[in-house]
Design brief:
By secondary structure, the protein is α+β, with helices and mostly antiparallel strands. The chain contains 9 helices and 8 strands.
């Protein structure tokens, strides 16, 4: 009896991934989050609507600048089979800078014959945004990284190669497929988060804000269970400011933007539901 059950499980959980680039790319894919959203909400929508979120991890790198990111686990239900996949979602300045070189200048001198004024370079702007200095803000790059064929076994390797060693600060496990978010709904939320704050600055709209606002909205929308809370105090601690994290910080990190995201997602879900019905009948 046990062997029969194992055979059924192996049949149901297929090893042959379908050819859907936004979920199961043929090679490891590192793309702009909005590009990924366009695929999920566009050409891949008819299939992606049957792909649902299983688990969401909020992670933090252990080395400076202690980058925070999300790892999302999905399952696609297609033709009586299930295909597991995973991805990494994060935010960084338009050109990611991990650390400020020790000998980096504080200003960039670009004096012209007609003017002795100082003009900051784009690289300096990124340094200042990363360090939270000078009130600078630069364009935010929100990314979706998917290992080859979306293989979950390669997610830890991909995360470590990108960010170094990291800790999982919080895990949200979805209770049921029927109470989860679909890939189009999740993609809509990523797009909403980007549109709420398309610029990066360390003191507010940084990697922590981006990861946390997505995590909080997902938590509010689904029935799930949180775990791995033993490292939660590391959440939001910057590598040189290092403020203490408290329970109320989660809800207050961006309360007005969090509420806007909830409202916009609710409206978008109505459209997605209508579109799903339309696709079903054509």
């Amino acid at each position: 009896m046990l062997q029969t059950i194992k055979k059924l499980v192996r049949f149901f959980m297929s090893d042959d991934s379908p050819n859907i680039h936004c979920l199961f790319p043929q090679t490891a894919d590192n793309s702009n989050a909005l590009h990924w959203c366009n695929g999920i909400l566009g050409r891949d929508f008819p299939t992606a609507k049957d792909c649902v979120l299983d688990q969401l991890d909020h992670c933090k790198a252990t080395r400076p600048p202690a980058h925070e990111f999300l790892i999302a686990y999905f399952t696609l239900y297609l033709d009586g089979k299930a295909y597991e996949m995973g991805m990494i979602i994060d935010r960084c300045p338009a050109k990611e800078i991990d650390e400020l070189p020790r000998d980096a200048p504080l200003i960039s001198s670009m004096a012209s014959p007609s003017s002795q004024s100082l003009s900051p370079s784009p690289a300096l702007d990124r340094f200042q945004a990363t360090l939270g200095k000078g009130g600078k803000a630069v364009a935010a790059t929100d990314r979706v990284m998917i290992p080859k064929l979306g293989q979950r076994d390669n997610l830890k390797k991909l995360a470590t190669e990108t960010f170094g060693t990291y800790n999982t600060l919080n895990t949200l496990s979805v209770g049921s497929r029927h109470t989860s978010m679909s890939a189009p709904q999740f993609a809509t939320l990523v797009e909403i988060a980007h549109n709420l704050a398309p610029t990066y600055d360390l003191r507010k709209h940084q990697c922590y804000w981006f990861a946390l606002i997505i995590f909080l909205v997902v938590r509010n929308r689904i029935e799930g269970k949180e775990s791995n809370g033993d490292k939660i105090k590391q959440l939001g601690r910057w590598w040189y400011f290092a403020p203490e994290h408290t329970a109320c910080d989660d809800e207050n990190v961006a309360k007005d933007e969090y509420e806007k995201a909830q409202i916009q997602l609710k409206v978008s879900h109505r459209y997605i539901f209508w579109y799903e019905q339309y696709i079903h009948h054509i």
